[in-house]
TrEMBL record:
<dbReference type="InterPro" id="IPR012340">
    <property type="entry name" value="NA-bd_OB-fold"/>
</dbReference>
<keyword id="KW-0227">DNA damage</keyword>
<feature type="domain" description="Helicase ATP-binding">
    <location>
        <begin position="266"/>
        <end position="432"/>
    </location>
</feature>
<dbReference type="InterPro" id="IPR014001">
    <property type="entry name" value="Helicase_ATP-bd"/>
</dbReference>
<dbReference type="GO" id="GO:0003678">
    <property type="term" value="F:DNA helicase activity"/>
</dbReference>
<dbReference type="GO" id="GO:0016787">
    <property type="term" value="F:hydrolase activity"/>
</dbReference>
<dbReference type="InterPro" id="IPR047112">
    <property type="entry name" value="RecG/Mfd"/>
</dbReference>
<dbReference type="Pfam" id="PF19833">
    <property type="entry name" value="RecG_dom3_C"/>
</dbReference>
<protein>
    <recommendedName>
        <fullName>Probable DNA 3'-5' helicase RecG</fullName>
    </recommendedName>
</protein>
<keyword id="KW-0067">ATP-binding</keyword>
<dbReference type="GO" id="GO:0003677">
    <property type="term" value="F:DNA binding"/>
</dbReference>
<keyword id="KW-0347">Helicase</keyword>
<dbReference type="GO" id="GO:0006281">
    <property type="term" value="P:DNA repair"/>
</dbReference>
<keyword id="KW-0238">DNA-binding</keyword>
<keyword id="KW-0547">Nucleotide-binding</keyword>
<dbReference type="Pfam" id="PF00270">
    <property type="entry name" value="DEAD"/>
</dbReference>
<dbReference type="GO" id="GO:0005524">
    <property type="term" value="F:ATP binding"/>
</dbReference>
Amino acid sequence: MLDINSKIETIYGVGEKAQKELAKISLATVLDILYYFPWRYDDWTDIKPIRSIRINEEAVVFVTIKKIFIQRTMRKRMIIIKAKISDESGEIEAIWFNQPFLERVLTVGSKWYLVGKGAFFNQKKIFSVKAQEKTAQIVPIYHSSGFLKSNFFRRIIKICLGANNQISEYLPDFVMQKFRLIELQSAINFIHQPASNPILQKAKRRLAFDELFIISLSLLLLRQKRNRKKALVAKAPVDKLKIFTENLPFKLTNDQRRSAWQIILDMEKSRPMNRLLQGDVGSGKTIVALLASISVLENSFQVAWLAPTEALARQHFDTINKFTGNKLAIGLLTSSIAKYKDKKISKVELIKNIAQEKVKIIIATHALLANKVIIPKLNLLIVDEQHRFGVKQRSQLIGAKKSSPHFLSMTATPIPRTLSLALYGDLDISIIREKPLGRKKIITELVGENLRSQKYNFIEKQITSGRQAFIICPLIEEPEPSKSLFDLDKKSVVAEYKKIKKKVFSQKKVAMLHGKMKPKEKQKVMQEFKNGKIDILVSTAVVEVGIDIANATIMMVEGADKFGLAQLHQFRGRVGRSDRQSYCFLFSSSANEKTHQRLMAMEQLDDGFKLAEIDLKMRGPGIFSGIKQSGFGNLKMASIFDTMLLTEAKQGAELTLSRGLKNFPILDEKVTEFTQHEHLE
Ligand code: ADP
Ligand code: MG
C-alpha cells in the first residue's frame, strides 16, 4: 500500500528525471503531490448545440462523426483532419491540425465531446478542435513544470489519491460544523476529480478556508506572544511637544495631530506599540514620526529610524536638523557616510557613540543592520516604507532583549482597508488623509503623441520661470530588440536623457538618475537637483519613494501604461509640494482601451486609496509588494479579497484559540510548522 509520506520515486512511473523536475517545485512526497492543485478546469459538462457556435468563442459540443477526410498540405508533414459532425441542432465541419494519430480514433458513426472554437478556414465557418473526450467530465488542468505536462500530473495524482484516506483531519469538529465545511479527505479528492461543479466549489471553499484559517491562527498567536513582551514606558512630555509644534513654520493638520497623539499615547503603555502610519505622499508623515521621537528622547531613550534608500536617510537627517535647530544628538549611518550632528565622523566612532548612548537618534539605511550596531536604550524603531524590510530584519534589531522597543512603520502605499486588516491584522493603524493646507490639486493629463511638442513648450516656460521638472522612464537602457519584443515601446532613461539634452532642452541643465549608478553619483545628482542646479531630472522609478523637492512642479511620465496606478500616484506626489500649481503629464502609446481607461482614472482621482482599489480590480493583488512578506504570499486556493471567507476563518481561529490550541494537537503542529516556514516569528 502507498504511504502518504513516502517519496515520490516509489510511485510507479516516476523516474529519476521526473523526480528532479518535481524537486524544483518542492514536490517530494505523495502528500506534496496531493496538495498540487489544478490551476483551472476544462468543464466538458457544459454542452452547447452546434447551431450556437460563434467565431472565436470556446464551446463544448456533443456530436456524431458523419464523414472524415484527411488532407496533406504543401508543406509535407502538415496533416489536416476534417470531419463532418452533427447533433440535433445542425451540422458543421470540424478541423484538427497535425494530429495524424486521430485518423484511427475518429471513426465514422462514433460519438465525441469536442472542445474548440468557431473559426474561418478557406472562407468557410468551421469548428477548430482543441481536444476531444469520450465521456463528459470536469477535467483538472495542472501547471506544467519543465517536461512534465498536465497529463503527467493527472496520472500520478490518480495513483496518489490511493493514499488519500491516510490524511488526517486537523480542523476542529465545531469549526467544520459552524462554517459548513466538507472533510479534508473529500476536499482533496474532489479538487482533483470533481464529480460536478457544486462539489468542486465545496472542495475549493474548504481548502481556501484552511489556508486563511492557518494564517489567522498564526497571526493571533504572534499577537499573544507580542503582548506578553514588555516595553519601557515613555511619558508624553506635553509642554515640550507644545513648544516644538508652536515653533514649526507651519500648522499641523488635524490628521497629523491625531496620529502623533495616538502614537505618543501608545508609548505610554508597557506593551510594545505596533502601529502603521499610513498617509499619502506629501501628507507629512515625517513630522509625525519626529514628534514621536522627541517624546522618546525626552524620556532619555534612544530612537532608530530606518529609511529604504540613502537619499531618504540623508533627507530625514537634514529635515530633523532643520526642524530642531541642530540641537539633537543625532547620527546618520549609511553604507557610504557616517555623521554626528552636522560633522562627518568615522563609522567606528559613530557606532561607539551609539553604544555609549551619546547618540540619541540614529537615522540609517540597511547599513545599521549590516554593521550589527548595538543600541542599548533603543525604545522606538521607526521604519519608513516598511515593505522593503523583511520581518526577519526587523526582529534582528529588536533582538533578544527583555523589553521590546515600540515599533512604528510608515507607508505611502495606499492599501485598501480590507486588505490592510488582513495583512496587518495585528497592527494598529493611524491614517493621515488630509493634505497640508494651501496645496493645489495637481493638474493631471493623459497626453497623446500629437501634443508632445506643445507640452515641451509648456515645460520650457515653467523652467524659465524658475521651476524644475522630472521625466520618468520605465527602463534604464534600450532593450536588445531580439531579446524583448514586448519592451520595444518602453522608453529608456539613457536614450531619453540624450534626446532631451541635445535636441529638446539644449539650453537647460539636464541630468539623469537610475539604479545602476553608484550611490555617490546618485547622491550628487539628487543634491544638485535639490539645490536647483539641475532643471530637468530624467530618471527611472528610483525617485518613487519619499524625495521632497518643493520647487519641482512638473512630473512627466513616459510609457505611463507600464506602471501601476499606485506607483504613478507616487510619482505624482513628487510634485505639488508647495503652494505653486503643479502638473503631471502621462504619455502612453498604448492603444489598448482598458489601459486607456485605467490611466484616465489618474486624471479624475487624486485619492491614492481609490486609485489602489482600481488597480487591484484591474491588475490583481500582485501589485502590492507587502503581501509577499505577510504569509499571505503563498495562497494557492484562497484570495485575500474574499473578505467573507477571511472573516469566517478569523472567527474560527479566535474560537479555536479560546478553547485552547493544545486541545487540537494536529492543528497545533501544523500552525507551528507554518509559522517557522514563513518566518513569522
Ligand atoms: P510624506 O508623508 O510623503 O513623507 P513629508 O513628511 O516628506 O511627506 O512632507 C512633505 C512636505 O510637506 C515636507 O516639505 C514637509 O515639511 C511639509 N509639511 C508637512 N506637514 C505640513 C503642514 N502641516 N503644513 C505645511 N507643510 C507641511
Ligand atoms: Mg516620507
